[in-house]
TrEMBL record:
The name this protein goes by in its record: DUF6259 domain-containing protein
Domain DUF6259, first and last residues per copy: 258-555
InterPro entries registered for this protein in UniProt: DUF6259
Domain of life: Bacteria
One Pfam family in the UniProt entry: DUF6259
Length: 762
């Protein structure tokens, strides 16, 4: 996994930022024009057009601290052609006007800009007739002759503290930050801001800030075409937040106007991140990315759906395929392989010099073939955008012209490999050169080496490229995802279907649902790479798109990190892939429990057969999960996410290990934390046949009583039916229910697993 780094909005030094902070209309100060739909009420200052009131009518809650609104609900940031001046110059609209085209729609217009007399900024804000949502669009006219870096809209200032706040962000899988203002305040940065790029680091277009007992601020967007944009929250000195969506028009001074092809959405909701996910799902699942889902339309080879367990191992085939074949025999269900470090070059160094495999062509081919004879398939790592700029092929193949260029014409290069210090450079997805190169690599992987597909590292991200020679729109636009789609089409047209290959990718993102067969969602094991912070992983992406996108993957491991044998010998740790301290066993159980109840295909990293005896309890737990899950695929692979019933979730403090393959140089590849975690995990899924499955996983050493009561209406089930329980010992009738009241009382054994099924009578 590579961390996505987005610097673009922080690099201000070469831009002239134009602030529009004041303007005048014929109204008196303090007068407000409102629109209201009975659910929410929006108010703009008549004199200036500032957005100074947003209230949740039902809960009589005002989100905005009026005195803190200093600016207009938008901001245009021009790029200075005289780069390097670094100065700020303000130009101001001298005139503001508004009109209502109907009761629910307000049109706002700013004009008379000093120094830019042609410029007009128009915004339309309309309310949903039925929901607590509003839709915002913007148009900037008279921009010819200027280079626009970004247009921030909407820009909502003065968002008050809701108290006991939670911030839910779909960072690939999803993050939940408790008391986000505290975390922002603790930041050392001058501007206390978090921003996330979409598509890419955000898998969906929403953020939700809420107090579950009060109300919530819902910010979203209805772009179905994958245009580049950022979402940002900034904390000011008086503890109010600014929210903004940052739009990127094409970087072209000949454009006369910019009009977003989508609307931003601002609304309120009562509930939590699951409520926000449900709200978003209503829109998201109606978009073409779901119509064209590979999972839903059964476009992926059936072996992928049938995968009971993934092994993610590294190195030559005897360290990868051999243990997988052994584990498949032990499990008795399909085990497949996610394979790193098989390639010729050392990792993060001389990509894309992947071929021939490091163990040699014949050895690799024989190993792949004999694993396939045993029913074990493999997908191989190849980075989807990176080229090592110290490699021989970089020069020999003339890669440089086809690399991504930033707004200043510089390449995007980063040295991930701390041992060699060699950097990798982003290639532009919109160039035929890179698509041809990458699809020829896939051709080799599948057609020559007979693998079962490719894992495309760094797949779910978006880069803005400013290279005019590439033929795509400059800077902002939606060419990246579109060209990723073209790349996958080209690969699928190139590779033979003989081994029924798949394309998997890093991260998750709604935009990639039609293109990738499987999404690697590592945040399920977040603590392994991020340690313990106030951010918790939530299955946000799965809550919206589970039945449309297959997710798998985990850093979950019982051994110390491996070290690429092709890296410098002097930095190699003494022991690699040796038993981790038993103190960390429960972390492994927790990760596997989460993946199970959150509807992912289970994965173990760095598996070796000595773990069967050395870590028998943990391996048995994983195999039991794989077996039980296999009996409940209609829920855990194909089901729709539902809220789990309320029950007691006892907690325990456990030891957490943070691991890094790149810590070797400093001599310490494992860092220890303590964390209070739940001993019981639950995930609830609705199948197409309308039955509901509740997956429960205990990681407790003791028996755990589980009791919950639910109302059948909450899951849109009929008022009577039967309740079953499935464990690895089989399925049995637990009881029946009537009058819509479902009571479940069971006791889970130590590290017990089960699926409680509610099957309504027809
Ligand atoms: Zn480009």
């Amino acid at each position: 996994m590579k961390k996505i780094k987005e610097y673009s909005i922080l690099i201000m030094s070469l831009c002239i930022i134009v602030f529009f902070t004041e303007c005048k209309s014929n109204s008196s100060p303090g007068e407000i024009v409102f629109i209201e739909n009975g659910k929410i009420k929006l108010g703009f200052e008549k004199e200036t057009g500032k957005f100074i009131s947003f209230s949740d009518v039902g809960h009589s809650y005002e989100f905005i601290e009026r005195n803190m609104v200093k600016g207009l609900p938008w901001e245009v940031n021009f790029h200075s052609s005289s780069a390097g001046s670094g100065s700020n110059s303000g130009i101001f609209p001298t005139k503001f006007s508004f009109s209502k085209s109907n009761e629910l729609t307000l049109n706002l217009e700013w004009e008379g800009f000093e120094g830019m007399i042609e410029l007009k900024v128009k915004a339309e804000v309309s309310l949903d007739p039925d929901k607590a949502l509003s839709y915002w669009s913007i148009k900037a006219e008279g921009i010819k002759g200027n280079l626009i870096k970004s247009i921030d809209f909407p820009r909502i200032q003065g968002i008050k503290n809701l108290g006991d706040e939670e911030l839910a962000i779909p960072t690939w899988m999803g993050s939940l930050v408790k008391n986000p203002r505290e975390s922002l305040a603790a930041s050392n940065a001058k501007v206390k801001r978090w921003s996330w790029s979409y598509p890419g680091s955000l898998s969906m277009q929403l953020i939700a800030l809420y107090n579950p007992n009060l109300t919530g601020f819902y910010a979203s967007c209805n772009d179905s075409l994958s245009f580049a944009k950022d979402f940002a929250v900034t904390l000011d000195t008086l503890n109010t937040l600014e929210y903004k969506m940052i739009n990127y028009p094409t970087f072209d001074s000949t454009l006369t106007s910019y009009h977003s092809s989508y609307e931003a959405i601002i609304g309120s909701f009562k509930g939590d991140w699951i409520t926000a996910a449900e709200l978003y799902r209503e829109w998201g699942t109606k978009q073409k990315w779901c119509d064209n889902s590979r999972l839903k339309n059964e476009l992926s080879p059936s072996w992928l759906d049938s995968t009971a367990l993934w092994i993610w191992n590294r190195g030559e085939s005897d360290n990868v395929l051999t243990p997988a074949v052994e584990l498949k025999q032990k499990l008795g269900l399909p085990v497949n392989v996610f394979w790193h470090w098989w390639h010729h070059c050392s990792y993060d160094d001389y990509f894309p010099e992947y071929f021939p495999p490091r163990e040699g062509r014949k050895s690799f081919q024989n190993a792949v073939e004999s694993a396939q004879e045993e029913g074990v398939r493999c997908i191989v790592y190849m980075n989807s955008i990176q080229w090592g700029d110290s490699s021989g092929s970089w020069k020999a193949e003339g890669a440089q012209p086809y690399s991504v260029k930033d707004i200043n014409g510089k390449m995007r290069s980063h040295a991930y490999n701390i041992f060699t210090g060699n950097s990798l450079t982003n290639m532009c997805m919109a160039t035929e050169f890179w698509k041809n190169k990458y699809s020829s690599l896939c051709d080799s992987a599948v057609n020559v080496y007979q693998t079962n597909g490719v894992y495309m590292d760094q797949a779910c991200l978006n880069r803005m490229c400013f290279d005019k020679s590439h033929g795509h729109k400059i800077g902002g636009g939606n060419y990246w995802v579109e060209n990723f789609g073209n790349l996958t089409q080209q690969i699928r047209a190139t590779v033979s279907d003989k081994t029924r290959p798949i394309l998997a990718g890093e991260g998750s993102g709604e935009n990639w649902i039609p293109y990738l067969d499987a999404f690697l969602t590592l945040p399920v094991s977040r603590e392994r790479y991020a340690g313990v912070t106030n951010t918790e992983t939530i299955p946000f992406f799965q809550a919206v798109y589970h039945e449309y996108a297959l997710t798998y993957g985990s850093y979950s491991s019982l051994v110390t990190p491996p070290y690429d044998e092709l890296w410098p010998k002097e930095y190699a740790p003494k022991e690699t892939e040796q038993l981790l301290d038993a103190d960390f066993n429960k972390q492994f159980l927790m990760e596997q429990a989460r993946a199970f109840v959150w509807g992912m295909q289970p994965t173990i990293a760095n598996y070796h057969s000595f773990l069967n005896s050395e870590r028998a309890e943990e391996i048995d737990y994983l195999l039991d999960i794989a077996k039980l899950r296999y009996q409940a695929l209609k829920y855990l692979l194909y089901g729709e996410f539902c809220r789990s019933p309320q029950t007691d979730y006892p907690e325990e403090e456990i030891k957490i290990s943070k691991l890094s393959i790149y810590a070797g140089r400093k001599g310490k590849s494992v860092t220890t934390f303590n964390k209070k975690v739940s001993l019981l995990y639950s995930g609830t899924w609705k199948a197409k046949d309308n039955s509901v499955g509740i997956a429960l996983a205990s990681i407790s050493d003791d028996n755990l009583p589980v009791h919950f009561s639910i109302n059948s209406e909450d899951y849109k089930l009929s008022g009577k039916g039967k309740i079953y329980i499935t464990t690895t010992n089989g399925k049995e009738l637990l009881g029946s229910y009537s009058n819509g009241l479902i009571n479940v009382e069971i006791s889970l054994q130590p590290r017990g697993l089960c699926i409680v099924e509610i099957v309504p009578s027809v």
